[in-house]
């Protein structure tokens, strides 16, 4: 028997439904740890709890699906009054917009936060990264660098890391680098780069452009060598030598950094099966040279030429020329008088090195795969530029860019007497004219490319870089 003042109150059904929904949501929430990546596969939790922090970077990476297919939506709140953010909004609710599978938000979370996911397609998987520093998932603006190919090989380079600080020499100790400059030790904590190469026909560009999606694709070919190389002033790079590729095939290449960041794609084409030149790279006196030159295959077991097996008949005259040029250059009062507010003798030496290497190592091209309007010239080794190359090897030469010569002319003191041919007086006989800068009216190309190469593997003239 109940006393009159002990009555049972029945809650309204609408309130019971709200309480039940709140309890269900609380039970299905996952807590996202900081500086960690959570991989989600179906069934997907609808809500995630974010911890309290002055600032967090929340990033999303879709791991399945295509860039044109259906994608989920992600809503985020850093307000303690909004328990279930979604399309209907609420206090401080933000939608994380996805672009090619990536999306991120950075802001304060002083009261914690909630991440909601809706409209998840079947079988969709994704990653959520939370960091109190920089964004974990990212599509970077950088890309791999294409060196060159043969019929079955390719030289590729990662984006630069560990940039070197090379201060300009100052008076009175104005010493220029030697012909063979000393190479510092490689960084002890290099970036964790992974190369992915696949035939373009496999359609990697139609996938979500994220590291977790691209990593599911098996890379084509064999990484015959992976090492570090100080290719240019931008810093150290990872150099990859790929072998086992198919002749006359279009390839797409990505570089993944630290498992979660991905570069923009680049494209390249292997040469035809009759291509007879060999790759050369890793020359300390010509560090940026990384392309095919008119040499027979290197002695086994080497797959390419480098400083250890390049014939001395080729390297010694080049090193001697660099030494003599440097000696002559230092007779100018580089450390006492400023001859230019823009460049120094060190800039002159570097520009001359680039030019000398470009003209000494003729770059082979394949007429079957070269881009239209490239600066091609049928040649015979030995050629007029470097008679040290062995004879009897006919090849098609990709002429040096005229700008490689004019850059040296601009950077160097006039007393050296360095001069370049001009477009109106047959410069195109020995240089690629009108590909980077505008040539004279009517010149082939007319500067329409505005560059010596592009991300699609087209190379119009040899810059020596």
UniProtKB/TrEMBL annotation:
One of its GO terms (biological process) is calcium ion import across plasma membrane. InterPro entries: MID1/Yam8. Residues 1-26 form the signal peptide. It comes from the Eukaryota. The keyword Transferase applies. One of its GO terms (molecular function) is kinase activity. Transmembrane segments: none annotated. It holds the Pfam family Mid1. PANTHER family: AEL197CP, MID1P. This is Acetate kinase. The lineage of its organism: Eukaryota, Fungi, Dikarya, Basidiomycota, Agaricomycotina.
């Amino acid at each position: 028997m109940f006393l009159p003042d002990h009555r049972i109150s029945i809650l309204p059904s609408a309130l019971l439904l709200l309480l039940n929904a709140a309890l269900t949501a609380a039970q299905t929430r996952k807590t996202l740890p900081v500086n960690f990546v959570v991989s989600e596969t179906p069934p997907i939790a609808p809500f995630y709890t974010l911890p309290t922090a002055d600032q967090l970077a929340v990033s999303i990476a879709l791991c399945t699906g295509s860039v044109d297919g259906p994608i989920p939506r992600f809503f985020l709140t850093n307000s303690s009054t909004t328990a279930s953010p979604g399309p209907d909004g609420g206090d401080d609710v933000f939608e994380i917009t996805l672009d090619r599978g990536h999306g991120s938000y950075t802001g304060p979370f002083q009261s914690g936060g909630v991440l909601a996911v809706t409209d998840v397609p079947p079988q969709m998987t994704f990653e959520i990264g939370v960091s109190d520093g920089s964004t974990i998932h990212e599509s970077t603006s950088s890309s791999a660098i294409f060196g060159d190919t043969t019929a079955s090989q390719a030289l590729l380079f990662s984006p630069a890391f560990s940039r070197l600080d090379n201060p300009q020499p100052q008076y009175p100790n104005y010493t220029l680098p030697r012909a063979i400059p000393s190479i510092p030790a490689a960084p002890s904590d290099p970036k964790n780069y992974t190369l992915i190469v696949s035939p373009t026909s496999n359609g990697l560009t139609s996938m979500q452009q994220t590291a977790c999606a691209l990593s599911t694709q098996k890379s084509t070919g064999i990484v015959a060598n992976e090492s570090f190389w100080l290719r240019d002033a931008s810093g150290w790079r990872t150099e990859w030598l790929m072998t086992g590729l198919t002749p006359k095939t279009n390839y797409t290449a990505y570089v993944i950094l630290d498992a979660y960041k991905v570069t923009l794609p680049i494209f390249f084409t292997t040469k035809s099966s009759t291509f007879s030149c060999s790759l050369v790279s890793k020359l300390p006196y010509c560090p940026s040279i990384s392309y095919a030159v008119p040499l027979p295959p290197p002695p086994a077991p080497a797959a390419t030429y480098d400083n250890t097996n390049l014939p001395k008949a080729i390297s010694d005259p080049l090193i001697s020329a660099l030494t003599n040029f440097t000696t002559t250059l230092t007779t100018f009062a580089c450390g006492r008088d400023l001859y230019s507010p823009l460049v120094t003798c060190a800039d002159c030496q570097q520009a001359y090195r680039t030019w000398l290497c470009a003209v000494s190592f003729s770059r082979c091209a394949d007429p079957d795969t070269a881009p239209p309007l490239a600066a091609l010239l049928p040649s015979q080794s030995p050629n007029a530029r470097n008679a040290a190359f062995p004879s009897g090897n006919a090849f098609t030469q990709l002429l040096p860019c005229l700008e490689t010569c004019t850059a040296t002319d601009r950077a160097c003191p006039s007393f050296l007497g360095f001069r370049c041919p001009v477009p109106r007086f047959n410069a195109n006989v020995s240089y690629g004219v009108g590909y980077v800068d505008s040539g004279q009216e009517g010149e082939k190309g007319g500067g329409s490319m505005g560059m010596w190469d592009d991300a699609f593997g087209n190379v119009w003239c040899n810059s020596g870089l």
